[in-house]
Design goal:
Number of domains: 1
Helix content: 55-70%
Radius of gyration: 30 Å
Number of helices: 4
Distance between the termini: 82 Å
Strand order of the largest sheet: 1-2
Mean pLDDT: 76
Length: 178
């Protein structure tokens, strides 16, 4: 009779903990299109030759790089869309695993005198430790996302400044930039 009661307690605890496990959140790392990847279309507005266009585009590129500090031809420039996918445990799984391990450990420590209390206290302690681990993992993922988003925003701003500078230079030389 006593083992049936313990079994029901374990099943009840597991049923309650199953509500703690949720699907992993989705994080979108990079916007669909980067300013750095857009190509400007240059129209010959005043009868310039293709050779003159190449020379002017190169000189304007150098000037825009000097002005903004951003060089899209450098290897460290923002690439096209990159998505980083890391496998991980779903949120809440640490609490569920901790509760189960704690319940087993608590029952073993409590011994034959009071296994129900050991089961309950061990399960609660394990769930608390597992939930703490889940929270730390989520905080780390959120911090990494913020760092990436800030770096991407800085790169976008630099690329946009470069684009404006080269367009202004080419426009001043008689080209139409679209």
């Amino acid at each position: 009779m006593r083992s049936m009661g313990q079994f029901l307690v374990v099943v009840g605890v597991l049923a309650l903990l199953s509500g703690c496990v949720t699907s992993a959140p989705r994080h979108y790392v990079v916007p669909a299109h980067s300013v750095a990847q857009r190509q400007a279309i240059i129209y010959l507005a005043q009868g310039q030759s293709p050779q003159q266009l190449d020379k002017d585009r190169y000189e304007c590129h150098l000037g825009a790089v000097r002005q903004t500090g951003f060089d899209p031809s450098r290897s460290g420039s923002p690439a096209d869309v990159r998505v980083l996918v890391r496998p991980g445990n779903p949120p809440g799984s640490g609490a569920a695993v901790g509760a189960l391990a704690g319940a087993i450990f608590g029952t073993a420590i409590a011994g034959p005198g009071n296994p129900g209390a050991g089961l309950l206290l061990g399960g609660l302690a394990g769930a608390a430790l597992g939930a703490s681990s889940d929270a730390a993992s989520q905080a780390q993922a959120d911090a990494e996302q913020r760092r990436y988003s800030q770096a991407h925003a800085r790169a976008e701003a630099s690329a946009s400044s470069y684009s404006r500078a080269i367009s202004a230079c080419l426009g001043a030389r008689g080209y139409t930039v679209g």
